[in-house]
Amino acid sequence: MARVFSATGDSGSLERLFRLVVLSVAMGNLDMHAKNISLLHRPDGSMTLSPAYDVVPQAHQPNDGEVALAIGGEYRHAAITMDHLVAEGRSWGLAKAAGLAEETLTTVLHLARTQSPDKRAHPGLANDIAGFASKLLARRAAGTA
Q1: Read out DSSP for 5-46?
Q2: What's the pTM?
Q3: Has residue 101 got a pLDDT over 90?
Q4: Helix segments in 28-124, DSSP class H
Q5: Mind listing the pLDDT tens digit for each residue in 21-69?
Q6: Most distant CA pair in the chain, distance
Q7: Rounded to an integer, what distance in angstroms lies between the CA atom of residue 136 and that of residue 144?
Q8: 94 vs 11, 51, 52, 91, 133, CA distance in Å?
């Protein structure tokens, strides 16, 4: 999909897709794969990234701990670092991948610290997300202690 946006010059969709990848790592969404990303086809023949959907934290659940699509060559969520995120973005042609990742993670961290999850959510959800985002911002692996 990144190639589609690069080829068509849709830098806005490319940046939004990258932010979605960063958000997914920061919140422990292990199920981000090609079937959970869609394109909207406009009447003029152009395409754009659809709004995000099926973005669900899963790192706290019993699973193999791997993301569905590799991030910078890494599948293990706990091992993903800012370097992996930036490498992924740069491989898509995003020269400002580091800044986009940092901005997105800073926003995620702020929201995790200031907003309360739904009362039905996993009890440690906000702390999990704040922890992942903090570690990534500190240039550490998402799952380090």
Answers
A1: HHHHT-HHHHHHHHHHHHHHHHHT-TT--GGG--EEEPTTS-
A2: 0.91
A3: yes
A4: 82-91, 97-114
A5: 999 999 999 998 888 989 888 898 888 899 999 999 999 999 999 999 9
A6: 50
A7: 10
A8: 8, 20, 20, 7, 21
